[in-house]
Amino acid sequence: MEIQTKKGRWLTNLGLSLMAVIWLFPIFVMFKESLRVNGFSNYIATLQNPNFPQFVFNSFIVAFFMILISISFLAFAAFGFSKLEFAGKRLLFNLVLAGLMLPVASLIVPLFFTLRNLDGLNSYWGLIGAEVAFFLPFGLMLIKSYFDELPNELMEAAHIDGATTFQIFYKIMMPLAKPALATATIYAFLNSWNEYLMVLTFMTDPAYQTVTMAPTFFTEALGGDPGKLYASLVLISLPTMVFYIFFQRFLQKGMTSGAVK
Amino acid sequence: MQHATELPEEQPKLSAVPPQRPDSTKKKAQLKKNLIGWAFVAPTVLFVIAFIYYGIFYNAYHSLFSWDGISFEKTYIGFENFGRMFSDPEFYNALKNTGIFTVLTVTIQAGLGLVLAYLLHTKGVGRTFFKSVFFFPVVLSPVVLGAAFSQIFDFQFGYINEFLRMVGLGAFEQNWLGDQDVALYAIILINIFQWTGSSMIMYYMAMLAIEREVFEAANIDGAGFWRTLWSVVFPNLKGTTFTLTILGVIGGLKTFDIVWISTQGGPGNSTEVISTYLFRKSMLHQEVGYASAVAIILLIIALSITYFQTRVQKKMD
Questions:
Q1: Within-domain flag for B20
Q2: What is the pLDDT of residues A196-208, one digit of tens each?
Q3: Is residue B268 part of a domain?
Q4: Secondary structure of residue B210 in the 3-state scheme
Q5: Is the separation of the CB atoms in B73 and B293 below 8 Å?
Q6: Which domain covers residue B306, as residue numbers?
Q7: Is the residue at B214 inside a domain?
Q8: pLDDT tens digits, residue range B138-178?
Q9: Residue B145 and residue A26: Cβ atoms within 8 Å?
Q10: Closest by CA position to B94, among listed B317, B312, B295, B244
Q11: What CATH number did the domain enclosing B134 receive?
């Protein structure tokens, strides 16, 4: 849309700029506080605390396996729900999708006590499993809506040529679905990296905690050294910032493709 | 040759009473189809059942017991947990705060998101940059935002109070996160800051789908900039507004991180929401049976909203 008057254009730009300043302010605050008193040596001190690299390592391990498991499950399921016909399809799809609406807090009791009985607390696999379960509904919606857009003719042609369902899935549909799988991967990473409640509940031992526990840990361990606390916050935000800079188009598209339907 | 191979397949159609064999192959084919389909969706479905649906049954079962989560002994008490919950002022307080939180975030986020999307929709410099800036907080961890805002809201040295004192409005300074009457609204502000970008993107994408002619017609009719937004653009975005409302309500019920990081539900219980109440009862107070009952109510609320959503969406389509 074009604004007709010069004054109108000027006001629009001014309004947007003011809002942008407000929106960047908390991030500016974080950077500024991270340099408090000791400047950049806050960062060095944070990185040298042996617990910090451990948090980062744990986060990467959990995120890696969470992505690996959920994306491979979802590739099959999204194809199945979108392109195959079988008994109970609608019911099963709605069963998974209903999970989208459930707050993690409402299932924290069963998750905690079940994992405790299975030695899943303070272990990677317990957290990974729970994160996968809560990501599957959103991921399914995202990837399935992409499969729905792909024409069925391709499949039918391959079927006539004698290809099995698995061959059609693997050789024809997977390469086409790459953008959707990439979008889901980015969302999965962000979900896992930023997960807070499950880590807080399942991981009482700092050796297994992820980056979202770093601030609490530093506040308690370093007894109120805000410079280092904020340096750790900047450091744990770096991967998400890098992801954002490179993949924000995917993120914005994913936001609408999943939700509008 | 060709003719001969085709014949047997044609035959069933011709005969009045279909012979047994083709019928059973049909059944077999159907079974094979089902098996293939189930195999593809099984990992996802079974995983969700194991973690989520098993959890729902676990909650339903334990809501009928008095259990501290530590001892082996669980005492069956029927619906007593539910009775206690519905006469517990703390439970209603958490519900009320969740309600305030949800209504304010949903409306303000949608309103602000709509205006930002509309401004970005105009032609001009730096639109992509602005869009990136407003959407950015969506990817940040609530841990990070909570810490940044605790600095901004700090009573003594916080940026907001310092600013107010500087411009001579020191009388309006607040203990933003430490005052019972203010803290909930301060947290709502943080939440709005984080999620307005997603409302903006959804409105923006939907605006791109509105035909150019609609804007031009409004212009010819002499509708001004804001008038066009209110009476032409907004009515065209009903679907998006509805989606955002549902997502916002669900998001409100899910809210835990930002509250726990900023205030842990305090001061007093002025920022306690349903999720933090549930966490406190189960993990900190060891009232596991009671917490299961609260979880069941939360699940019922979430699922009825979903049911309502699908009904309305069917009508809209």
A1: no
A2: 999 999 999 989 9
A3: yes
A4: coil
A5: no
A6: 88-316
A7: yes
A8: 999 999 999 899 889 888 888 888 888 888 887 888 888 88
A9: yes
A10: B295
A11: 1.10.3720.10
Contacts of B132 in chain A (CB under 8 A): 244, 248
Q: How many helices (H) and strands (E) would you count in chain A?
A: 13, 0
Which residues of B fall within a CB distance of 8 Å from A113?
A: 58, 69, 288
Two tokens, residue B87: 């006469």
Q: How many CB atoms lie within 10 A of CB B88?
A: 15
Nearest CA in chain A to B291: A109
Q: Write the residue in A3, A86, A255 that is nearest to B198 by C-beta.
A: A255
Provide the domain count of chain B: 1
3-class DSSP assignment, residue A11:
helix
- Token couple for A38: 């000791």
Contacts of A103 (CB under 8 A, 6+ apart): B253, B254, B256, B274, B275, B298, B302
DSSP state of B158: -
Structural domains present in chain A: 35-259 (1.10.3720.10)
DSSP A213: G
- Report ipTM for this prediction: 0.90
**Which residue in the block uniquely carries the two structure tokens 């989520």?**
B52
Residue A248: Cβ within 10 Å count: 19
CA distance B278 to chain A (A): 7
